[in-house]
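In the previous lecture we treated proteins in isolation. Real proteins rarely work alone, and many bind small molecules. This record shows how such a complex is specified: first the sequence, then the SMILES for zinc ion.
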Amino acid sequence: MHELTEKEFNSFKRICEKDGIKYDTEEEYREAARNLFEYVKLTYEMAREHHGWEQRLKDEPRGFWLDSAGRTCYVCHTNVHGQIWFDKWGLKCANCQEAFEKKVFPGYVLKDRDNEKHVTDSQLNWKYGVCPRTIKKLTRTGLLKARQIPNGPAIFLRKENPDLPQIIRDYKKPAPSSSNK
Ligand SMILES: [Zn+2]
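The predicted 3D structure, ligand included, written as tokens:
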């Protein structure tokens, strides 16, 4: 993709004026335009790359390894430096991919970005406020049914844990005002 041209810069300025966005100096306009341009370029390149992978899936429907310099595994959310697996469900680190092949968890977990169908142990902690020790205890006693990825997170499928909302209500850490800190 080319660099930002004068014509594009001028049209950026016009759009700013129309939308009531004001910068004090010409240099600030240029910087804002450059930032937007870089952002669009990056988004476009990512979309194009993704499209390329989708095309490749037609010949390799099971999926394939990609070089990764910090891409995120959709399952355990760690940044992968090395090889990452891509298939119709998305990106998986080698560890999660191995567990997936052994059918430890279903593929829909990768698409379930809003936790409507599953939640991981670390999400139960940071997103829903249940402490890790409690999660382990509930799993051990069978109140929570976990799909444990070896060396990875525990996954709780909502359909296997219909009481999850109630459990979260019951075991949530107390609000800061009622704790010692
Ligand atoms: Zn992973």
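Summary for your notes: Residues 1-59 form one domain. The first helix runs from residue 6 to 18.
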